[in-house]
Amino acid sequence: MKIAIVGGGIGGLTAALALSQNAHDITVLERSAGIREIGAGVQISPNAGRLLHSLGLGAAYSEISVNPHRVVLRRWEDDSIIRATDLDESFLSQHQVPLANVARNELVEILGSAVAARTNVTMKFSTHVVKVEPGDSSSEVIFADGSSQSFGIVIGADGIHSVVRPCVGGIDKPRFSGSAAYRALVPRSAVEDLPIDVTNRMGPDRHVVSYFIGRNRSHLNLVCISPEDSWETESWTEQGTMEDLLSRFEGWSPEFLSLLGRVEEPIFRWALYDREPLEQWGIGTTTLLGDACHPMLPFMAQGSCQAIEDAVVLARCLSDANTSDAASALRRYEDARQGRTAQVQTSSLMNRDLFHMLDGQEQKDRDMILSISPPGMSILDWVYEYDALTVAV
Ligand SMILES: Cc1cc2nc3c(=O)[nH]c(=O)nc-3n(C[C@H](O)[C@H](O)[C@H](O)COP(=O)(O)OP(=O)(O)OC[C@H]3O[C@@H](n4cnc5c(N)ncnc54)[C@H](O)[C@@H]3O)c2cc1C
Questions:
Q1: Would you say the C-alpha torsion 222, 375, 296, 253 has a positive or negative sign?
Q2: So what's the pLDDT on residue 240?
């Protein structure tokens, strides 16, 4: 099959790699001038990590991964531990691969190199798609220069502001969450004393997640979420200032403020958007994947992981598809993925309320329940145990 993937981010590149295992002719259409990824870190949980291994990325992926020893929830005001979960041997034997924290650019780099090594994938950069016209036996891609090209299948993996999405009926606008994320990095040399944890500091209306990323654990990645009244653009690259960041976390623990004091500028900030789960992902021979169909708040750390799962399920559905049954193969993919991704989208939204509780009885109850609940990460088993390689399609 002649397949076009619009967008070469984590979702689009993983789809290209997964689809290239079969005799398809794949073209990735990417707006940027080259493979690039802005933003700092991303957590890859075992449900997606296992898939990266299955796609043959094991060694390169392990090399760029930092595997945290614990997941720790702390109180904003005094840094006291509410709950600490060891990611020990039993976690590994249950999930086969560890939780991994990676630098986004390094993940995209290894995906890009693997894709470049496939003879049945062509990467086209500086290629701006403006529209797709879905048909039953082929779909037409329209480019910004007015030209067009026909493909047997078109996959919209073009992110939260997808141009493919409205072409299959998704005309809703992204929903501003009322929160902004400040992203800051601290060089490893300034935090050698810190344990290799994923830490979530929870406070009123805000929370901060930190973890090490990069080859040789080069940096501590801080994602500081705080309220924002309104936002005009959704951008990965807008710069924030240290003064602004500090003013949003006044009164937080000395340990946390000391961490902010070690941040290496620039600081980036971006608005957080999501959308309601989408009912119809595709028409005819066009479908969607990743943030283009199910953008979610990052409070389950699952956006990229869900895009990776999509890619693998899609490749399974299309493994022996031909022109006559391509559309029905895409509908099987959508049926297999819709419930799962909607559940993760909804849970991500619910985590905002859980993380951002104002101090008071409800927050005390939350902390007490978290502190006495059974050890381990079993509350996330439904996320981590999903197997895109075997789920019914
Ligand atoms: C603060 C924050 C923290 C996060 N943390 C995590 C985490 O820990 N774990 C996790 O799994 N996820 C996390 N996510 C979510 C994750 O970043 C996204 O879900 C993921 O990047 C989506 O990948 P994608 O390939 O679907 O879309 P994108 O990464 O948005 O890629 C889309 C690609 O399409 C290209 N494109 C766009 N429009 C066009 C066009 N018209 N023509 C051609 N090309 C086009 C773009 O240039 C881009 O390369 C986080 C998100 C945020 C904001």
A1: negative
A2: 86
